[in-house]
Amino acid sequence: MVDIDTPPRYSRIPDPLVGALRELARSRRLLVALDFDGTLAPEVDDPAQARALPEAREAVLRLLRMPRTRVALVSGRSLASLTAVADLPDTVLLVGSHGIELRLDAEPAVSLDTTELRQVDVLSTVLGEVADAVDQVWLEPKPAGFALHTRLATEHNSRVAHLVARSEASAEIEDLTIREGKNVLEFSVRSTTKGEAVEHLRRYTEADAVFYAGDDVTDEDAFAALGADDVGLKSGEGATLANYRLPGPTEVARALTLLADLREGDVHEQ
Ligand SMILES: O=P(O)(O)OC[C@H]1O[C@H](O[C@H]2O[C@H](CO)[C@@H](O)[C@H](O)[C@H]2O)[C@H](O)[C@@H](O)[C@@H]1O
C-alpha cells in the first residue's frame, strides 16, 4: 500500500481530498473522466501547442493499464484536435465537442443532417466576418460549429467580437447553442453538454464511481451529473459545483498520481 503521508509528494493535496481519493480508489469499476485544457494541460496561446503535463500524462497512462478502470477525456475540442494534443493510446475514451463526438472503443462517428450542415455554413460566414474584422480574433472549426478565440485580442476588441458574434449568429440560427469559455465563445448547431457525456460514459463503462476534473464553465454540467459516490475536482478559480478544488494543472497532476498509486494498491488486493 502507498504511504500517503510521505512528504512532499502529496503535500499540496488537502486531507479531505486525499480521503475521498482513497475511497474512490476502492471502487470496483472506476471511471476517471478528465477535461483537457486548463486541467491536464496548462493554457497556452496556440491550442495546437497545448500538452498534458508529463506527470498528468504518466498518471493517465498508469490508470489506463489498470483492470476495471477506464479513463475518458471530455473536451470542448473537436475529436481530431483532442486526439492530436492528447496523444494517448486507443484505450482512452474520447468525448469531443462537448459531447457531440464520441470515440468509445470504436471508430468515431458524428453525422450532421442537411439542416445542421447548412447552419454550419451560415455560421462560418457570419463568424468569419467577425474574425476578419477584429484584430487577433480567430475561428477554430469543429464538426458542429466554431470556437471564436479572443485570447490575444484587447479586452475591448474581445468584448465587441463576443457581442457582435453572439447577436449576429443568433439572428441567423434558431436554437443555436452558445457557450462562453476561457477567452473563447463556442457556437454549436447541436446541443449536448459534458453532463450528458458523463452520464453516457457512466452507463457505457458500468462504473460504480466517477472521478471528474475540469476547470471551465462547461465542466459545471459534468460536476452537476456527479453523485454521492463520485468525486468532482475543480482546477483553478471560479464558482463551482465540484466538492474539491486545486489551484491548477500541476496540482491536478499530483492528485491523479495519488489516485493511480492508491488504485494500484487496491486493484491488486481485490
Ligand atoms: O473542454 P476543454 O478540453 O477544456 O476545451 C475547451 C477549449 O479548449 C481550447 O481552448 C482553450 O485552451 C487553449 C489552449 O490552452 C487556449 O488558447 C484558449 O484560450 C482556451 O479557450 C480549444 O481551443 C477549444 O476548442 C476548446 O473548446
From TrEMBL:
Pathway terms, separated by semicolons: Glycan biosynthesis; trehalose biosynthesis
InterPro entries per record: HAD-like_sf, HAD-SF_hydro_IIB, HAD_sf, OTSB-like, Trehalose_PPase
Entry keyword set: Hydrolase, Magnesium, Metal-binding
Parts of the chain that traverse the membrane: none
Catalytic reaction equation(s): alpha,alpha-trehalose 6-phosphate + H2O = alpha,alpha-trehalose + phosphate
Annotated EC: 3.1.3.12
Cofactor dependence: Mg(2+)
Gene Ontology MF, one: trehalose-phosphatase activity
Family note: Belongs to the trehalose phosphatase family.
Function noted in UniProt: Removes the phosphate from trehalose 6-phosphate to produce free trehalose.
Protein name, per record: Trehalose 6-phosphate phosphatase
